[in-house]
Amino acid sequence: MTVATVLEPKMPKCWRQETKPHKFCPGCGHGDILKALGTAIDELGIQDRVVFGCDIGCSLLSWDLFNCDSIQTHHGRTTPVMTGVKRARPDRICIAYMGDGGGYAIGSQHLVNAASRNEKILVIVANNVQYGMTGGQMAPTTLPGMKTETSPYGRDPESTGNPTLGPEMVAAITPASAYVARGTMANLRQLTQMFKKALQNQIDGNGFSFVEALSACPTNWRTNAAKTWEFVEKEMTKYFKVGELKAPAKKEGQ
Amino acid sequence: MSKLVKIALAGEGGQGVQSVAEIITEAANEEGKEALYIPNFGVEQRGGVSIAFVQISEKEKVGSPKFEKADIVIALSDRAVRRCAQYVDGNTVFVYDTAIEGVEDDLPKGAKKVIGIPAIETAKNELHPRVFNIIIMGAVIRSTHVVSEDQAKKALEDRLGYKFEQDPKLRELNYRALERGMQLVESQL
Amino acid sequence: MADKPIQGEKRMFMTGNEVCAYAALAANVDVMYGYPITPQNEIMHYWTRLAPKHNRTFLQTEDEISAGFTTCGGVMSGKRCFTATAGPGNTLMQEAMSMAEMMRIPAVFIIQQRGGPSTATVIYSQQEVTMTCFGANGEGLRVVYSTSSHQELFDYTIKSFNVAWKYRFPTFVLGDGYQAKMRESVTIYDPEVRGIKMVDTYPLVGLPGMPGVDRDPAHLRNTYNTEEELYEVVKDLVDAYEKMAPEIVEHSTMECDDADVVILCHGIVSRAAIEAVRNLRAAGVKAGFFRPITLRPFAKDALRPIAEKAKKLLIVESSQGQFAKIVTDALYGLTTPMETIFKPGLGITSDEIVNKVKAMI
After folding, report:
1. A9, part of any domain
2. Where is the Pyruvate/ketoisovalerate oxidoreductase catalytic domain (chain B) (predicted)?
3. Nearest residue of A to residue C58 by CA position?
4. Which of A25, C59, C64, C269 lies in the 20 to 30 Å Cα band around C42?
């Protein structure tokens, strides 16, 4: 056991100390989002029951972040792998963690169908409006006019469509027992509460849970701290409204 | 029967050739013989000719599931007559229904024997259209001896027993169809 | 605990797809994941009818990609799981199969080959040999049983679960549309009455105890950072595979000792070959027959002396040389003349083989 010093940042109990500091770039949203997730896991006391799955893309760097059993899968395939685990072991609490490419592009059929079947898993999509690990290409979530490596003159909705609205889509195709929300790294207290409700929904055996978290990629955005925050808080929220879209009513006695 | 008998049964969808193949091979299996049955299936099956490939062997396991030439071909529609010419050689007995029109020129020339039987007519006028395929079954077992009449009846009982229970007349109808089928080929073999 | 799905043993007359479903039940499979594709559909149909009576489950997924990955998830949970597919479904499922190769996931896949390339026929072929043995971006670290009868479908489906869980490599039962759809006799049995013990399964994730306190967490991955790191991982995989190979490799032969022509084939084509050898021998022609039962690993050591001794070899397959590639690789350096019957997507009868052999001598 290391002696705690004032310099050591406070981290969730379910994070694995041996693999810290984590592997994300400075300013990346993943660390904050996963911290909120870790806090939710701690507060619910479910660390020993969680099976955590991560995708390809920067999300894969979380493969050894938790002191939880974890599977790093293929691009877009985290949802079916976690579905497979949950179906075989319904007593586990399954979390599929991915980026917006994994959730809304290459893995969209899995998201749509897991949601339609009301699979009792939690899917988290970190939305940073582009592909991070491969070097900043356009994603389904890229904002209109936004420049990326594959939309160097700015995303033109005429030829490439409008940003995918994940939670809105999931809310439209899930029954009332699903939990659907969009949070943001800019409000970690709220995001933690969303994760807690989403996990509780799975624990209660109600149905599918889905949380999109607005995230930042200053590396590919080429933004400084101030610009990064401004983009997350002001630009992204113009398209992506933060809040709960679907929250099952509490069961009696809760 | 000889050591291995190869049968091609062909007709239109709804004529029941596949269930005849199923019942005969199940009966042969019950008798301790080695039977193999495979339908033609696939996209072609929809709206095409339905063919059942049946092989029954005294003892040895059957080889490849489809064959080039059959010992007996039973063709129950004009399309089936034309489609099945490919399975006929000098050792093949070719059986067709005499109610099929316009196939006179398509009947195989090189067959060992070509037999026309009035199965469709017999079903319609004497028995009931729904036992048409049981008449065919009778014709098959009499021409090939792949299963005994008793075993064939037992197989019918196994398959349709629950219906026979409700309506014993049905049993009688099916047995008569089987016997009539046997008679139809009897005199011509 | 529900009654055993199969008590003792009994002779049945059924389709190969039904045989696979019964074999999975007999093998104590917990979950099947699957997506409809001809000619494997009836495996799901029978499974969904039989499974609930024995507390087993089924999930119909959105596609074969998902069927492959959900199967991997189920297996990593410590359950005996399988899926079944064919043709374009096999293509889609290669992605999950390569993950199973890399992460040593003991998943079982039943493949009922159909005609290709592309959608092609839903009927029959042996054109999924290369893909099933060596598909995806991997090294072919898979076990592949090529069956030829309903009895083998039953026996090897059960064996696949045991080999998969004992050695932890993805294991395949390679059938075809003919085997899927035809009916023939088969004796199904409770593995226990034949002295077969099902290899215990165990979870790779969802282990007991508090991770980080009672034990280390299971952190399973398939992504590596450096060439050297990956090289070590793959080297270990290859070593484990090569160590296993002699323990599981299987083949069968017939009349090879004095054969002038040895026929080489696999799977259902062996039925035509056996018939052909019988007929040829009866006609005084010295024909023999060699058949690998495992296409991966391949019975190279058994084949080489036979091939060396034979005057001629004849390779017969319902594809354009996919099997021949495996054979010629194993026979490198030998000079025995070789001829072929390649019939991609088409069934092969004993008459064709007999005529060819007669023309060769």
Report:
1. no
2. 13-183
3. A87
4. C269
DSSP B71-94: SEEEE-SHHHHHHHGGG--TT-EE
Q: How many domains does chain B have?
A: 1
CA distance C270 to chain B (A): 8
Tell me: the pLDDT tens digits for C111-140? 999 999 999 999 999 999 999 999 999 999
Where in the sequence is the domain holding A204, given as residue range(s)? 17-246
C123: chain B residues, CB-CB within 8 Å: 40-42
pLDDT digits 0-9 by tens, C65-105: 999 999 999 999 999 999 999 999 999 999 999 999 999 99
C160 φ, ψ (degrees, to nearest 5)? -60, -40
Q: Do A64 and C96 touch (CB under 8 A)?
A: no
How far is Cα C209 from Cα A48, in angstroms, rounded to an integer?
7
Expressed as residue numbers, the domain containing B100 is 4-186
Report residue B141 as tokens. Answer: 């077992």
Cβ pair B36:C183 closer than 8 A:
yes
> Which chain C residue has its CA at the smallest distance from A112's CA?
C62
The CATH number of the domain covering residues in C9-194: 3.40.50.970
How many angstroms separate the most distant Cα atoms in chain A?
57
Is A254 inside any structural domain? no
d(CA A123, CA A74): 15
Number of separate domains in chain A: 1
In a domain, A53, yes or no: yes
Q: What is the DSSP letter of C268?
A: T
Residue showing tokens 């009449």: B149
Per the CB < 8 Å rule, is C70 touching A109? Answer: no
> Which residues in chain B have Cβ-Cβ distances shorter than 8 Å to C148?
none
Among B115, B141, B134, CA closest to B172 = B134
Beta bridge partners of C184: B36, C14
**Model ipTM?**
0.92
Q: Are B161 and B16 in contact (CB under 8 A)?
A: no
- What are the tens digits of pLDDT across the range A60-118? 999 999 999 999 999 999 999 999 999 999 999 999 999 999 999 999 999 999 999 99
End-to-end CA distance of chain C: 61
Return the CATH class of domain C251-360.
alpha beta
- Flag if A83 and C77 touch (Cβ within 8 Å): no
- Tell me, what CATH number does B62's domain have? 3.40.920.10
> Within 10 A of C336 (CB to CB), how many other CB atoms are there?
14
Please indicate, yes or no, if residue A31 is contained in any of the structural domains.
yes
